[in-house]
Specification:
Blueprint lengths: L1 H27 L24 E3 L2 E3 L3 H31 L5 H13 L6 H11 L5 H25 L3 H9 L4 H12 L1 H16 L3 H6 L8 H8 L10 H31 L6
Antiparallel strand pairs: 1-2
Helix pairs in contact: 1-11, 2-5, 2-8, 2-10, 3-5, 5-8, 6-7, 8-11, 10-11
């Protein structure tokens, strides 16, 4: 019964996602959506890929720099968060120290506060450090907000790694770092893949941090680009086809990333623990 329920849930999710993507794709290929005289199946809505586009009373810049900023931001945040989370989770899992349980419980408390509730305090900290309106400040904030839950997740994976495996590596001549890098990490690859996927998707879609702390358009990402393409409230409206085209370009890379990482993870797990 549980297996059938899971299959129905998966089918429902896939169908819902397929319908949503189809609607976005359809809207991106027509002009004057929801209006008479619409011209179906045109690529005019994708002109923003290489040149500025005039929409109603405002202009949309080419997407190139925004796309590069988004990729760079997501990759850097994912890499830094993995480094911080892996080292912290390994230390917590392997070391016994006073206040360990309190520290672990504090990770839940830190993750319980939504970013919106911390905007003012984070602003004062970034202002004191001189990191307002810089990409470095945005990266630091994103990593700091995501690290607590990542550490807690990876700590559980490290707990499942037998001590005997690590001791065997040390006996064979590995240093502590070499045993961590060459042996222990191979056992926690599913955890690394999960954290990397969640972190990348979260960083790719980040909006609050940029709209609050980063004002220079040179550092803006796709989320800010999409917001700008929608126009202001007091303007004469926006072009649905162009917005759908931008949304399609925005969502496709992260969907491909998710599918590739999950397929790779399932392929590795299907073969069992061959590294043991």
């Amino acid at each position: 019964m549980q297996s059938q329920a899971r299959k129905r849930l998966v089918i429902y999710i896939v169908m819902s996602f397929s319908i949503a993507v189809f609607i976005i794709l359809y809207l991106s290929l027509i002009t004057n959506a929801f209006q008479k005289g619409g011209n179906p199946f045109t690529l005019e809505n994708f002109k923003f890929l290489k040149e500025s586009v005039r929409v109603k009373t405002y202009t949309i810049d080419p997407i190139g720099s925004y796309f590069v900023n988004t990729v760079a931001f997501a990759v850097i945040v994912t890499a830094l968060q993995l480094i911080v989370s892996l080292t912290a989770a390994y230390s917590i899992s392997r070391l016994n120290f006073k206040g360990k349980k309190v520290f672990l419980n504090s990770l839940f408390v830190l993750d319980a506060f939504p970013a919106v509730s911390l905007l003012i305090s984070i602003y004062y900290v970034l202002s004191f450090l001189g990191l307002i309106d810089t990409i470095y400040g945005a990266i630091i904030v994103k990593v700091a907000l995501g690290a607590p839950m990542s550490v807690y997740m990876l700590k559980g994976f490290f707990d499942d790694v037998p001590w005997d495996v690590e001791w065997s590596a040390l006996v064979d001549g590995c240093t502590r770092f070499e045993s961590f890098r060459k042996v222990v990490l191979s056992y926690v690859k599913p955890g690394i893949a999960s954290v990397a996927t969640l972190t990348f998707i979260s960083a790719w879609s980040e909006y609050i941090i940029f709209v609050t702390y980063v004002y220079d358009k040179r550092f803006h990402t796709m989320s800010m680009y999409l917001k700008g393409a929608m126009g202001e409230v007091n303007q004469s409206g926006s072009d649905t086809g162009v917005i759908a085209a931008i949304a399609l370009v925005y969502v496709v890379p992260v969907v491909i990333y998710f599918i590739v990482t999950q397929f790779s993870l399932m392929k590795k797990n299907a073969g069992g623990s061959k590294h043991v």
